[in-house]
């Protein structure tokens, strides 16, 4: 009893899982993400039915990239799927006959980490997810901070460089252009291009050209001491840590949780982020410092978090 | 009955006032701010006693610049008065025999505006105060957001220009170096120096030199059509509005309230701020927009807010 | 007698012309630019032969985008045509039987303006060309400044914004990303997207969408008072003028000449550039100011300049 | 025979020396710099007379900080001494009865290095001097590039960060705020303040506080492996090298010479500058690279250069 289903809609896969009150996943399934909005709704319903079999399910929580309205019912805008004011809650409820809650995927992941991961024991937590882009979620006083219109915590798009890099959102200088997996690869390519003599390990892991550098090469090369790879992580950390310092000035949480593929590297990336955070934290001698913690749930945070949000109703 | 006292500790004056449940000030007094920490405590106690006469007071709320701890008792650090871990609540309680609450002054002002000023009817409000510097406060779900350690909402010190202007806090590129009364004067001086032919009204209001330009000259000159004065307000607004757009991405409030001396100019400064806000608001076609409102309580917001916070306990 | 031929190799057209000692073009022809390096050489030779007929030609000057070596013989790298260490001088000389000089196209245009256009009467001139990108040339003491390796005056790629916009050159924050025709269009699109109510004339000249805005719409709309179009020119001018101020600190010429498509708008764009130049000119009270002049030869500057450089040998 | 005198006017000392045609100093004297403009003229005349004794002197060259006019006669503006349109050449000639040439001090130093120091064998050289501030000089085709009005090569005040640090010149974001001895000390103080645990050697060399850090401590600490000291040099080098890359795009010299107190550290600072230069050099695969050389004459470059410029007439 007390089971709910979490659904995580990714760009290529939709994952659904049955989750219990302790955040354990009892059953799971994955299907490819269809191309059409209607196809996605069908796929969600199918996945929910598949994992439901043999379980007594109370509710369904769906995590989706994009803006979700304040009623947690409608996706106002999704960057990947062509959803514009899509009444996702109603459509899925009609098909699966269970109460449905829709949440921004990064919010759902933040909630998962707060409840069952690195955030346990903290009431005020800010999570950032350094994936391809940069997302995140905010917990204040043990509650998910959704904002008045449901679209809070869009960390990736605060402006950190006036007149800076163009962003897919149409603006310039957005944080995710400087602190994300994509940024890391750009740093490595630029440096390998300028000083290939310092990137021999890194270049050797790929096809030998700066253009062929991929994220995993950078981690591997950094562990082997490649100067360009290490410097690329340091540059990422400079921007990530400086941004966390800003978030500390605004939110003053007791802990930051850093998740996403980049953070899988653990202290290789977290230590320089911590150092940069302290470097830029205003008033750092006069205030208690938030901890900077590695996420614990990996790619499952969103699914587990969505399921738990559905339970909370 | 139901009366509390609010105390606002400024750089030159300490103001105390008796405030009722509707936020009306029944009585008030001002004394110069002493130079020593102990002197300030004495002056607060004196002022409280002075305005108390003939009133039945329940509690005292004090607004002070600086970091106030999460128990609202100790000033961790004050920029103007030499307070370092000053147990202000205890000291004042011992002298006045009433329950005391200490709050950051910008938080108190934000609370005042939320309860009795421009924020009425909103539950999620972000206030910024464009005074000499830039401060502010955050209301989430009808509650003041103080942060885990009491030091949230330090808006003035988020970094908006990497490697930017030095700030009194020791960091560089802080928002208040670009959006504040001091920044406005700098903009006007630089422009008047470079193109005095476009600043004739402005220069005529002072001593004729760029160095002699003061804040009030800029407002007056702008109303008279002085190009440099107008351009200086526009530059201020560019930075203020862009910062509000970032805060919308993070907090997603239903309203922003803009207070402080600069905002006394009303739509002269608010309209360009609104325009800049819309210009930089990410996803502005797909999301509801927060309103950008002028503060209503002027310089009394802090006193009224501190008094009300004391009432709430 | 005293005739030379100038050849201007553009992205879509190759223009050749017979030019006399006064810089007058006696004859001209245009052919499409072939796709292959060898095709371009053939086309140049054909064009030279075509316009030569009936004239006594002394030499040929070729202006080409890219790096040209210090012997003015080899194109080290061309961005548009696939030339890498192309011995253009030798190849063309073999085909046309005349002495050939190769020059960077922006250098040739600068020389044309210096000799027969806006630069007459000046010995120290810096030209910038605001076309699709930003190029230019430098005249010092009446001589073209080519640099030790032939690749001086690459104005478009000095860094004006650290961590700024990506440039086709692989770097970030290059001046031409902020001061060029392409930048102007970007400014207009961003502003029209954010505040369409201020871009009604501008949008009406195109297809009604921000994406549909073209350069010529912006000029026309600015002349009709469209706020977004005017503001876009002002933004361009901010960056162009600030860059000229830097060049004044370095080169200290007696005049700047501003050419390229953007400058066809004359004082609409030149006046704000002059204002921004004065604004940012360091020590502007203590030093004589260079004039900021509009180019006079339009699109013919490169051809005329190349012809004259060939005459000088 | 063939002897001239060079005079170097510093903020605290005036140095004069007799220099032969090989750039050797035969005799020298130093006097404190007087406070008044007239006092400085007297002191120059006295120093010239003192070192002249027993030598047959042809001419005198004076190097002074500030703008010197195109006739090399009048100091238009000096930052340290209160000279405004000071006819220095005439005044000194009247007192010493010898032909006098006045030159900007950084230009004189550049000329000294070009003729007798690191620049020998090069015809196109750009020198930068990383002292308290950032100055420099330009040699093109074996001639000092003075500019049309005499005020070229003011490297320190090109803008490298829009809206950046305030500069003494009244502008913002000037290169010398990021690449100079003063900048180096700022970097070290900021880092030592944020992460004192990484600055133990550095702090130990001074009074133990970040405020007490001086330039020489940083060099010593860097040689001993102090992380903050090393990182401070690296930050300086990032900005210095990026600026040299811009100068290469503009001037395309065959060599850069880096002088000034900071460069006394040799490869400790030059190697990271070279690396940063290559990193930011646009088109670095397609163009010959200028060398980045350490200055050889130290603090005597200005005196020797001024003397030689006087000889050239």
From TrEMBL, chains A, B, C, D:
User: Tell me, what is an example of a GO biological process annotation in this record?
Assistant: glycolytic process
E.C. numbers: 2.7.1.2
Key words of the record: ATP-binding, Cytoplasm, Glycolysis, Kinase, Nucleotide-binding, Repressor, Transferase
Q: Which reaction does it catalyse?
A: D-glucose + ATP = D-glucose 6-phosphate + ADP + H(+)
One molecular function GO term is: ATP binding
Kindly list the GO CC terms recorded for this protein.
Answer: cytoplasm
Q: Does the keyword ATP-binding apply?
A: yes
For the protein in the UniProt heading, the enzyme class is: transferase
InterPro entries documented for this protein = ATPase_NBD, ROK, ROK_cs, ROK_glcA
Please state where this protein is localized: Cytoplasm
* Source organism superkingdom: Bacteria
| Main subcellular localisation | cytoplasm
- Family, per entry: Belongs to the ROK (NagC/XylR) family.
- PANTHER family in the record: GLUCOKINASE, ROK (REPRESSOR, ORF, KINASE) FAMILY
Quaternary organization: Homooligomer (possibly a homotetramer). Alternatively, it may form a heterotetramer of two glucokinase subunits with two ORF2 (AC P40182) proteins.
Q: What is the recorded name of this protein? A: Glucokinase
